[in-house]
Amino acid sequence: MSKITIIGAGLAGSLLAIDLAKRGIAVDVFEARGDMRTEAVDAGRSINLALSDRGIAALREVGMDEYMLAEAVPMTGRMIHDAAGGTKLLPYSGRTGEYINSISRGGLNIALINEAEKYDGVTFHFNERCTDVNIDACQATFSSGSSVDAQAIIATDGAGSAVRRSLDLRFDDLISTSVFLDHGYKELHIPPASGNSFQLEKNALHIWPRHQFMMIALPNFDGSFTCTLFLAKERPTGELSSFAALSDHTSVTQFFAREFPDALELMPTLVEDFFTNPTGDLGTMKCWPWSVGNILLLGDAAHAMVPFYGQGMNCAFEDVRVLSELIDMQSEATAQIDWRSIFTEFSSIRKPNTDAIQDMAQDNFYEMRDATADPVFQRKRELETKLEQTFPDYFSKYSMVTFREDLPYAVAKERGNAQDKLLMDICSDPENVGHLGLDKIIALIRNLHA
Q1: Is residue 143 within 8 Å of 41, Cβ to Cβ?
Q2: 94 near 384, Cβ under 8 Å?
Q3: How many CA atoms lie within 13 A of 297 on its CB side?
């Protein structure tokens, strides 16, 4: 019997291989890069991952949740660093035990590959770049010249998916659009202090919002922080700062001394990191259809998004969980898996929800960069925290997205946007919250969803 072919041994592909193997389905996984367990990973493109409930739920299905969380650092909220060096913590939730987890992309990927290889039916093939896909024959061809026939091909090969490009060339009805921000990103580093202690608050995602740009920092298990500067690539009209303008050691140091002085003193390798690490792109990619015959696009190959909601990996892992549930449902009804029908149903279920989180992720860029420094927004977050502490049935939009894996992204977006508008209106006047009271405010929110 032909195996299932997975193109891409990243996070989604490796998790999918485990999930299929647990069902006794044989899998070949082809990866364009070398084996990351034995080769150095390129520096500067490993934005830390925020593992939250949707991703944890998928890891739980394959018994990997507790193992990975043991190597993660909990983050209970956003620590806002203002231009004067002051800080303010905005909790992610008012409920106990709701937080996100900073986790190493490479560490998680390696753990998933190692777990997948424990199954006899899983084989990884590294340094095998997919160059073509034959839709009718369900056949993939690789840079080595080899080709593989499969029962089904599932592409988890990322935003630049070779499988999607191949389908785009061969399938006239495929619609694929990419929208890139005029901002890029660059990864930087804050090392641990002596004894691997943290130089900033350990259990927070740190944000330096500066309206037209920002920097964030996520804690690592070893006491360091991975920092990411988000900045316009070219200088916008009327603005002084851009990656293009930061062209030498002096300009970089002066920029950080002016904008992030509290971080600068913690970054001894700033200049080296800045000029060594590449400037990455930030884009959203939407396409349709995701499936053609027995070929499916999954994860970033189908719905790449900007990282500002911390949901790219979590969404891809949820893809795996939803696909797994559909396989189970069909397996209960018939002994023969009809991959084409499963792929069609999967696509129709997931597309509205991935569209929603892609839109929310792009919107959250402006929230993190601009709104987190706005007193009205800060009052809203404080109010949301009080509401969550007081009323168990209240969830902010962020909580619905991040801590409610039972709630589709599209529902979280619709409900969350309505709540946000109402609460921002209330918080526009500092006296309103005290005047209305929490009982009146929760009644107004509940009326929105009646």
Answers
A1: no
A2: yes
A3: 32
Distances (CA, A) of 187 to 39, 101, 301: 20, 19, 23
Q: What CA–CA distance (Å, rounded) separates 62 from 77?
A: 28
- Point out which residues pair with 30 in neighbouring strands: 7, 125
The 10s digit of each residue's pLDDT in 152-206 is 999 999 999 999 999 888 877 788 888 999 999 999 999 999 999 999 999 999 9
Q: Which DSSP category does 290 fall into? A: S
**Phi, psi of 70, deg, nearest 5:** -65, -20
Which residue stretches of 225-311 are H helix?
Answer: 249-259, 261-264, 270-276, 300-303
Class of domain 4-41+52-70+104-178+283-367: alpha beta
Phi, psi (rounded to 5 degrees) for 148:
-135, 130
* Residue 342 pLDDT greater than 90, yes or no: yes
Cα(207)–Cα(184) distance, integer angstroms: 16
Greatest CA separation for the chain: 72
Buried b / exposed e over 138-166, threshold 16 CB at 10 Å, is bbbebeeeeebebebbbbbbbbebbbbbb
- What dihedral do alpha carbons 243, 249, 250, 254 form, nearest 10°? 60
Sequence ranges of the domains in the chain? 4-41+52-70+104-178+283-367, 374-448
Give the three-class secondary structure for 163.
helix
* Nearest-5° Cα angle at 396, 83 to 204: 40
CA distance 157 to 148: 17
284: left (phi over 0), alpha (psi -120 to 50) or beta: beta
Query: What is the rounded CA–CA span in Å between residue 97 and residue 220?
Result: 20
In a 3-state reduction of DSSP, which class is residue 114? helix
318: confidence class by pLDDT, cuts 50, 70, 90: very high
Return the DSSP state at 196: G
Which of 263, 247, 340 minimizes the C-alpha distance to 82?
263
Torsion angle (degrees, nearest 10) of CA 310, 316, 318, 320: -160
Burial of 173 (0-12, 13-18, 19+ CB in 10 A): exposed
Residue with tokens 């396989």: 327
Helices (H), 62-171: 65-69, 105-116, 162-170
pLDDT score recorded for residue 169 = 84
Contact 9, 31 (CB under 8 A): yes
Q: At residue 2, does pLDDT exceed 70?
A: no
105, two tokens: 């992309």
Give the pair of three-digit tokens for residue 261.
Answer: 């002085």
> Quick one: angle between helices 409-427 and 375-390, nearest 10?
120
